Amino acid sequence: MEAKALTSYRPYWAKRFGTAPFLPMSRAEMEQLGWDSCDVILVTGDAYIDHPSFAMALLGRLLEAQGFRVGIISQPDWQSAEDFRKLGKPNLYFGITAGNMDSMVNRYTADKKIRSDDAYTPNAEANKRPDRAVIVYSQRAREAFPDANIVIGGIEASLRRIAHYDYWSDKVRRSILPDSKADLLIFGNAERAVVELTHRLSKGEPIEHIRDLRGSSFMVPKGWKPSEEWIEVDSTTVDMPGRVDPHPDPYAMEPAKSAAGQAAINDAGAQPIRIVTAAERVAARKAARSHQVVRLPSYDRVNEDPVRYAHASRTFHLESNPGNARALIQGNGDRDVWLNPPPIPLTTAEMDHVYGLPYARKPHPAYGDAKIPAWDMIRFSVNIMRGCFGGCTFCSITEHEGRIIQSRSEESILHEIEEIRDKTPGFTGIISDLGGPTANMYRLACKDKKIEESCRRLSCVYPGICENLNTDHAPLIQLYRKARTLPGIKKVLIGSGLRYDLAVQSPEYVKELVTHHVGGYLKIAPEHTEEGPLSKMMKPGIGTYERFKQMFEKYSKEAGKEQYLIPYFIAAHPGTTDEDMLELALWLKRYDFRLDQVQTFLPTPLALATAMWHTEKNPLRKVTRESEGVPIVRGGRQRRLHKAFLRYHDPENWPLLREALKAMGRADLIGNGKKHLIPAWQPGGDSSSRTGRRPPAATSARRPSPQRRR
Q1: In a domain, 392, yes or no
Q2: 3-class DSSP state for residue 270?
C-alpha cells in the first residue's frame, strides 16, 4: 500500500497568513487574522478545544499547515440557518461532524433515556446538539448557502455510511448520504482524504468529479462505474451464504415467493442471491481486485430480510482491510451508494506531523472559565497510537479507525509530554495516560507486510493470537521508561484499557506496568466469564484474565504495593442467557467484586454485535437461514435482570433477582449464608421478602472491598 505523503503537497497561497492562535469562531477573529473569507468551515457538535484529541482541531490545524484558512462553527443553534452564516460562505466546503461521539450515543443511555449532561460541552450542559446532528447540520448549512459544497465525516457519518440498524428508532435506516444531502462522505481517519480533497477543490475540480478518494463515499446513478474496466461482483462471490430463502411450500398452487425474494426480483440494480459455481468464483478472484466493486444487498432487501442484513454486515467487515478491500456499492431507491476502499493508514512520520502541529492545547477563549469535562479528562494524557486489531464485535473502532495500528515515534511522544509539562495550566507532574484505543498495542503489527495486506481475518487475537502477529512489548517498555525519567515528570499512569491476552505474552511488560504505572487501580475488561457471550464478543476466555490477575498480584507484591484490578463487564450482550449472567454474578461474589457502575449493551450502527442483535444471526460465520441463532435480550425487564445480576449486592435488585432465581430453579441461592447470592430479607420491610429475617449485624455487615469498582 502506497499513498502520497501528507507533507508532499505544495502549500495553498493563503499560507502567507501564518498560524492562527486559535482557528477563528467569529468574523471579528477572521478580521484580526486579515481574512476576508474561510476556505473551509468545520461544523462540530462539540466545544472547540484546540488539542489533537479532538478531530476538528486536528483536521483544522492539518489544513492550516497546508495553507488553507479554516474556521470553526462549534455547537451551532440548529433551529435556524443563522449560525451557519456567521463566518460567511466557505470558498471550498463545509466539513460537518457530530463531534467526537455519535450524537445519539452522546444524548441517550442504553435504556434510551436522555442523559443529563454532555462531557463535550462547556459546564457539561445537556441538549446543546440535536439528534442525528450530521443530518441536521448539513440541512442547515445547505439552507444557509444552497450552492456550498457539503462534506460529512466523523464517527457518526462513518457508522452510517451504508444501510444500518438504528437502535433508537428500532428500524433499519438507509445510508446517511441521501438524508443529509451531502456531496461527499469521508469515513474513518480522514487526514489523507481531507488534504487531497481540499487541494483538488482549490484547483477548481468540481466535487462531483472527485470519485477516486480512498475512504470516501457518495451517491451515484444506477449502473454508474468510474470507467469501463470496472467489474461488479455480487456479494455472494465474497462470502457465499448458501440458502437464504425459505423452502417452497410443495402443496402450494404456485411457487411461493418470500417478501425478500420478491424484493430481489423487483430490485433492478442488484442480482438475486444464488449458488455460485466454483468456476465463477475462481474467475472472480482472478479479475483485477483494484477494479472490482462488490454489490451488497440493497437497502430494501436488508430492511425486509434480517438474513440478508447479517450477510451484508459480514461482507462489509470482510472488505475492511485497506490492503485488499474492494469498493462496495449498495442500492438506495433509484440510486446507489458507492464506497471506496478504506484509507491507507498513516506512517509513523505522518502521525508525528499530525500530532506535532501548533495546537494551543486548550479550549477556545470564548468559553472563559467554563469547565469542559472531556478536556479535563485528556489534558494531561498523550495519544500514542490509533486503531485496534482486537475486533471486539460491540466496539466501533474497527468500523472507524480500522485494525492496523498506527503509532507515533518515541521522540514525538516524549516531546508532547514536555509540551504538557511546560504549557498546560494546572500540571502537577502526573501524566494521566499514554494510550489510545488499546493501551498496549503500540507498534504491534503483522510480522509480514504481504501477509497483513492479504489477511481477511476479523481479529488478530481471536480465537487465539495469530502466529503472524508480533507481540513484542519492548518498544512500549522503553517508552514508559524514558517518559517517567523526563525532568518534571513525577509519574506516568496508564488510563486506557489494557488487552490482557497480549500483556501475558510479555511478563516483563506486566512487571513494568504494575511496578511503575498503576495508580492503585488498573482498568481491565474481561466483559464476561461465560463462553456463550464471549464467543459473540470475540473476547478471550476468563482463564486468560486469571493468568493476568496472578501476574498482576505477583508483581504488585514484589513492588510492595497494594493495587487492584477494576474489571468491566457488559450486561445483555448478544449471546447472553439468564444462566450466563447468573454464573457471572457468582464469579463476582466469589472474588468479592461489587460493581458501582455497569454497562448494558448498546447496539451502535454497523457493529457486528448490532447485526446479531437485530437479526439473531451470527455474522462471524457464513450466514444462512439454518445457521446458528444468537440469543438476544430485548425486553426491558430482561435487560434490567441482566444488569441486576452484575449488581447482585444492591438491595434494590433483590426482589427482581429472587423472582428470577426461583423461576430458574435456583432458589438455593437465596438465603443469609455465605453460599447464597442474595439474602432472603429485604431492607425497609418490603412485603415481597417477608419470608426471611434479617441476620444479625455481625454476619451481614461486610467490610468494603478495595476491589470494588470506583
Answers
A1: yes
A2: coil
Last residue of a domain, one of 313, 330, 347: 330
Cell of 687: 412485603
444: domain CATH number is 3.30.750.210
Cα separations (Å) of 84 from 146, 495, 518? 12, 37, 46
Residue 533 has pLDDT above 60, yes or no: yes
User: Do 474 and 551 have their domain in common?
Assistant: no
Domain identity same for 489 and 470:
yes
Q: How many angstroms separate the Cα of 466 from the Cα of each of 342, 457, 471?
A: 23, 10, 10
Q: Which residues, other chains included, contact 287 with Cβ-Cβ below 8 Å and sequence gap of 6+?
A: 231, 233
Q: What does the pLDDT read at residue 410? A: 98
Measured in residues, the chain has a length of: 710
What is the separation of C-alpha 29 from the centre of its chain, rounded to a whole number of angstroms?
34
**Inter-helix orientation angle 608-615/306-318, to 10°:** 170
Number of compact structural domains in the chain? 4
Mean pLDDT of 155-176: 97
Residue 402 sits in the same domain as residue 505: yes
CA distances from 468 to 43, 91, 445 (A): 42, 48, 9
* 121 in Cβ contact with 101 (< 8 Å): no
User: Distance between CA atoms of 70 and 85, rounded to whole angstroms?
Assistant: 15
- Residue 439: inside a domain, yes or no? yes
> Is residue 366 assigned to a domain?
no
Query: pLDDT tens digit string along 125-146?
Result: 999 999 999 999 999 999 999 9
CA-based nearest residue to 4, from 247, 224, 214, 230: 214
For 628-648, write each residue's pLDDT tens digit.
Answer: 899 999 988 999 999 999 999
Which candidate, 196, 198, 166, places its Cα nearest to that of 179?
166
Tell me the three cell numbers of residue 700: 451481614
Query: Residue 568: how many CB atoms within 10 A of its CB?
Result: 15
What is the DSSP pairing of strand 362-363 with strand 430-431? Answer: unpaired
Q: Are residues 89 and 217 in the same domain?
A: yes
Note whether 509 and 538 are same-domain residues: no
H-helix or E-strand containing 452?
A: helix 449-454
Which of 516, 534, 559 is a domain's end point? 516
pLDDT computed for residue 569 by the predictor: 95
Same domain (yes/no): 475, 580: no
Which residue range is the domain that position 497 belongs to? 380-516
Dist CA 377 CA 533 (whole Å): 31
Please return the burial class of 425, using the count of CB atoms within 10 Å of its CB with bins 0-12, 13-18 and 19+: exposed
Q: Helix, strand, or coil here: 561?
A: coil
Same-domain pairing of 288 and 193 = no
Nearest-10 crossing angle of helices 410-423, 348-355: 10
For residues 408 and 500, state if they share a domain. Answer: yes
Query: Is 354 inside any structural domain?
Result: no
pLDDT tens, position by position, 363-376: 999 999 999 999 99
* Number of neighbouring beta carbons within 10 Å of residue 635: 10
